[in-house]
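re: that chain from earlier
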Amino acid sequence: MNILAFESSCDETAAAVVQDGRRVLSDAILSQADMHAVYGGVVPEIASRKHVEAIAALADKALADAGLTRSGIGAVAVTYGPGLIGALLVAVNFAKSAAYALGKPLIPVHHLRGHIAANYLAFPELEPPFLALCISGGNSMIVDVAGYTDMTILGATRDDAAGECFDKIARVLGLPYPGGKPMDDLAQGGDPAKYPLPRAKVAGNDLDMSFSGLKTAAVNLVHNASQKGEALDRSSLAASVAAAISDELVPRAMEAARRTGRNILAAAGGVAANSVIRADLERACRENGLTLYLPPLSLCGDNGAMIGSQAYYEYLAGNLGDAALNAYANLEI
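^ sequence. v structure.
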């Protein structure tokens, strides 16, 4: 089955065609990052308007790149949450219209299920059950993937996400938005032990995370240095932040594997592109006898192909939408 999939949960407009959940026929993405960089973060109203301007042309491009006409599409899929509500509604309404016009099934897809499914595109041998470490700008969680559509959250951030932490600290360091890659680049050669930063422990569930204290500590460190006229080792601060975030994520993922008995871990989301976290995950999985799946950098960020992949398994499970499908800013996985 060829699935035409759409993603517009934040500041990337994406359309893709995926065959049987595993083969990418096309993946067209239009990023708005340069536009939002002027404001230091995503402006929801601007994001929504740009999605409206781009989505129809991207749908045509996805079909053309796949070498298909509209008659070659078997279903239409779309991210319906979580994300920026105005941005989500653009793709949801476009997908509903496309499905209706084509007379094809409509498949709603959870954004984070899509990030997990990006691994299916890179690793054809990967099948549930496994653990997933989902780390992005809006979410950080450990998920037990018992089946393609059977997932349970074992631990999650109680406040900020890891990606938001990177973005906000990058901003006070004068780095461009989005801050993940600039922070990663800056951290190269820095001393990760130079600046002691907090690692949170969450009462009630030690697999849960918290990044707000880390973000505040790093921002205050930058401001205090500036106010006192003291030199700041920006590279070492970036390295210290990456180490602190990794120290919250990696040990918890290992503990989740120990508790569940899972021996496979897949990373997912934009923050999975961070070189420190990737290296720490590789080392920890090797030491604990786990098989690790790290998606290529091209599949870490938001894209339509990951939505098309997960959509295939939602379709097989009978999870279909109709004209009443709505978008949701917050949505349980």
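The first helix runs from residue 33 to 37.
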